[in-house]
Amino acid sequence: MGAGLLVALGAAFSFGMSGAWARGLIDAGWTPGAAVTARVWVAALVLLVPTILALRGRWSVLRRNAGMVIGYGLLAVTATQLFYFQAVAVMDVGIALLVEYTAPIAVVLWLWLRRGEKPTRRSILGAVIAFAGLVLMLDILTGARVDAAGILWSLGAMVGAATYFVLSAREDTGMPPIVLAGSGLLLGAIGLTVAGLTGILPMAFTFGEVSYRFGPIPHVTVPWFVPVLAIGLLATALAYVLGIASTRMLGSRLASFVALAEVVAALLFGWMLLGQLPEPLQLLGAALVLAGVVVVKLGEPAVAEEGEPLLVG
72 or 116: whose pLDDT is higher? Predict the structure, then answer.
């Protein structure tokens, strides 16, 4: 359990750095769709050889789990990214991200309805505390604009994120974590590319220098491929592998709540790379998120405490 929590936190912090790196690209003239497509393609290509080696010629494993791989690639990767950016196009970013981050609540409800894994009172309390922390951290209490279409797109992103946690927890597939990550990312990259070519996802690239802060040093410029590689290698390839491995170690319910630390990481990297300092209210929200994760951990059923994954058939 201790190792699983460390791996899950590593995944959350890896995912969390993507926003700050991507913001630099977007400020330099990239569209969000172009940034996320480049991100997923880099990760898919990096994991291609390790995925093939991990299969060891057992291509039948992919055939047997074709439906799961397709669901993972299209929902957990493509839909999550595509729907989120569609939401951001018509509504405030904070509202869109908050709706997507209700995914842990959806995971708890799914396990309850599908498997009868009724959440304990502590788990429910932890969910409420974490949700309240996200509200404070995302600073949406100051009159943010709400758009009905944007809410629907955000709910689609939430379904994709919940699918990520549920599918990542399955150990009955015979697929190593890197195989699920590699095959899903490759399919997701193809899906995003198709969305771009058909005009669903706007694409624009620039190849000049990108500006960041790097801590106390303002206006440091780097070539465009530095953030692209950072997003693809660290914030995607490494993050998805660690995320799947931790979810199998912890179960989808607990892993999905630990992943809320991604918002804390996003604030940290936003300060380091963009100079965006969180307000005191946001720091209070971060503390509530961490407190909610601890309460959820205390409320996990005994079977999960002993390390048995909470699988969904």
Answer: 72
